[in-house]
Specification:
Blueprint (H helix, E strand, L loop, with lengths): L2 H5 L6 H11 L3 H6 L5 H14 L5 H8 L5 H14 L5 H7 L5 H14 L2 H10 L5 H18 L3 H6 L4 H9 L5 H18 L6 H29 L1
Helix pairs in contact: 4-6, 5-6, 6-8, 7-8, 8-9, 8-10, 9-10, 13-14
Length: 231
């Protein structure tokens, strides 16, 4: 079977990668396939390179990120670079944290956590200020993974950071769990009650209560989805 026929299979795994290397014996066949016109071949070979974790693939994969590829190709490249865990990929993954697609920003945060480099840590801390909750949460998970890999606590991690701005971001960041958001909502309600003292504003309180219920349901559903995705 030709290498491109193998790579066009919708199912990929380490067995396919080993078969390719056994039959063809040269790593450059995989790198050559990165330029194949068939998008499935290209996507599957990227995933296989991530499985093999061969650092020779870092620069060829980085080149794909600088080209006008489909967003899911960029996302797959970032995932593969995270699996290879080579710090040379940090600059391009750092740029991906500013991508307009939320899914790519999340994959970039995950990849930086796997690479486990100090320069990547700084970018993850910056990502804690992303406008989108999902990106902030992913960056927070990645930082937790770094602490586990380096066998240090979050407090010890904070002490290693020399940039005062980054240190304050990390210290002030609070996990956006349902309990934390509930606490913020209660705080806002207390402030509103201080302002609203007349009977004529009672309908506004009903509106606030209804909105609070909607927010709670939304957060519970999102928390459930995140818990399921982490399993």
């Amino acid at each position: 079977m030709a290498i491109f026929e193998l790579l066009e299979e919708s199912t990929y795994n380490g067995l396919i990668a080993n078969l390719i290397l056994e039959e063809h014996g040269k790593f450059y066949h995989l790198l050559k396939a990165l330029r194949h016109e068939n998008w499935r071949v290209k996507e599957n070979v990227i995933k296989i390179l991530g499985i093999l974790k061969d650092r020779r693939a870092v620069y060829p994969l980085i080149e794909l990120l600088s080209e006008n590829e489909r967003n899911w190709i960029h996302k797959t490249v970032i995932e593969a670079l995270g699996e290879i865990s080579d710090s040379r990929a940090i600059p391009v993954i750092k740029n991906a944290l500013r991508h307009k697609k939320i899914s790519i920003r999340r994959r970039a945060a995950e990849a930086l956590g796997k690479i486990a480099d100090k320069a990547g840590l700084n970018q993850l801390i910056v990502a804690l200020q992303d406008d989108v909750f999902e990106v902030r949460r992913t960056a927070s998970y990645a930082i937790e993974e770094l602490c586990k890999r380096w066998d240090i606590s979050k407090e010890d991690l904070t002490d290693t950071i020399t940039d005062e701005n980054l240190k304050q971001i990390l210290v002030n960041y609070k996990e956006e769990t349902l309990e934390v958001v509930e606490e913020r909502i209660l705080g806002l309600e207390e402030k509103i009650e201080e302002v609203i003292r007349t009977p004529n504003i009672i309908p506004m309180q009903e509106i606030i209560n209804n909105e609070r219920k909607k927010i709670k349901k939304f957060l519970e559903r999102r928390e459930h989805n995140y818990s399921r995705n982490k399993e």
